[in-house]
Design a protein that fits this description.
The protein contains ten helices and two strands. It has 279 residues and is mainly alpha-helical. A two-stranded antiparallel ribbon has the order 1-2.
Amino acid sequence: MSTTRTAPLQPTGREGGRFSQSPLVWMLTGIVGVGAVSGLTSAGGVVAVLGAVMAVAAYWAVMRFVARRSMPELAKSGAVPQTLFGAAIGFGFITVSMLMLLTEFSFAERPGNGLSIVASMAAMQVGAAVTEELLFRGLALQALEKLCGSWAALAITAAVFGGLHLANPDATLWTSTAIAIEAGVLLGAAFLWTRNIWFVVGLHFAWNTALGLIGIPVSGHASEGLMTTTPTGPGLLTGGEFGLEASIVPVIVSLLIAIPMLIAARRRGNLVPMRRRHS
């Protein structure tokens, strides 16, 4: 009696398409693509801006050809006002936090060309804001909420975002927790509210740039801004060597901003419910 070997079944085009459209597949592919060019953003100057442009191109390519989904979050229409709106909230967040803590710092003017300092700081922070928001709010949050809903996705991305900052200079468990709440929750809430990457990029950019220009470390990284700012008060208020983001004050302020955003996101129907598994 003879036997005939059958070739293993190969996925059809439709099956292959479904596999690539799996949220985990396009999330991981996007992380690799955007992450591959993210190193350019730390170079500063024109290279950092070029890195941001390449990161957007990589994100677009993954969403277009792997996830095969539309990208309303990257819509060109309204991109400028959304970015400016986000930037206004970011600057406001840092301004309010600093005004509440003015007596806890000493300030001194730093020598140098002011225009050059601002341009250099802005270029570097554009790169950081764009790549981080594409990775965390564009890819991770949107993919995870398809799997487990918006609330779980927000919690997971916030925790991971904070955890990754443990590798930063002068980081502690508290600084990581503070970053998870301030950045992870606030930036996630901002995206869920608007469903617009440009808005969140503007918020993130203005936040980092404002801190840097004041001369306060950004997530533990020293800043050579327009001023030299030295903490004189207790670490719980000033954030110590890590910077303002480790202060309890911006943690509270960020929640006061994020909670109304999440309430508005729910009212707009922007939150994805948790998927129920049927037995």
